[in-house]
Predict the structure.
Amino acid sequence: MLSSVYFLIGPTAAGKTEAALLIAPRLNAEIISADSMQVYRGADIVTAKPTSEERSRVRHHLVDILEPDEEWNVAEFREKALAAIRDILKRGKRPLVVGGSGLYIRTLIYGIFKGPGKDDPLRGRLQYSSARKGGQELWQELAAVDLKAAQGIAVQDRRRLIRALEVYHKTSVPLTVLKARRTGLSSAYSLHVTGLMRPRGELYERAEARVEEMFRAGLVEEVRLLVERGVGLTLSQCIGLKEVRGFLNGEWTLDEACERMKLATRHLVKKQLTWFRGESGVQWVTDDGAKRLGSGNEAARAVLQGWGF
């Protein structure tokens, strides 16, 4: 019988952290963070990191493991997350992966696709053909050899069309077939993937309220200290860094920094919703208007029921 790995995913401000802290003790689980920014020490407020008190109640993995100037990517995440899963199971506990980074979740579940290296002469010919014939003809060329891949790429996205054709011409195997050969978690573990979802408007409201709370909790001072220590390329992409830096540099007021951060967070939520709509194999716990997710207790109860606890 395969060991189980549990996932609690969903967009920013859906209530994952609160629910996960309630779920973990019932599961006898330890949490693996699938957040791309919570790995950084000192970036507590800006990344909405679980507090030290919360982490004392439930052990967390992949939180506070890097300095702010160190780099981090999805491949490193997958390697360390797999090691954490093995370690947790070895000690007789259950892994609970929690996060809103769709790319990190997808890569952990399905593995990393390592296609053939770039072929400059072949790519040059495809780019020339694209410029001469147009995106529609390029799309039809891909559809003739890999319809499934073509259906997932917009006609205007010539970069991805060219890459898919490049892979096919180099390997004589469709891109979708090569991706299906990836080694993912499902071959070694029984996966239980549940997502928390709320209406878009409610997510926006919750996200904006969280931004305001971050400023009250000392976000400006935290960012100032991070900048003094040195912030690497990865952490610099975190929402809040740019906005507060602008205030510290005198580019805009504190209120403007807060509004800019709210806007960036809304854009992130919108992007996450689009991503998660395309994910298969997820059991969504939703707020359908008749039954509201409400508190973390209600969300945790619904998730646990879905998992048979």
Summary: The chain has 15 helices and six strands. The first strand starts at residue 4 and ends at 9. The chain has a mean pLDDT of 91. The longest helix spans residues 254-277.
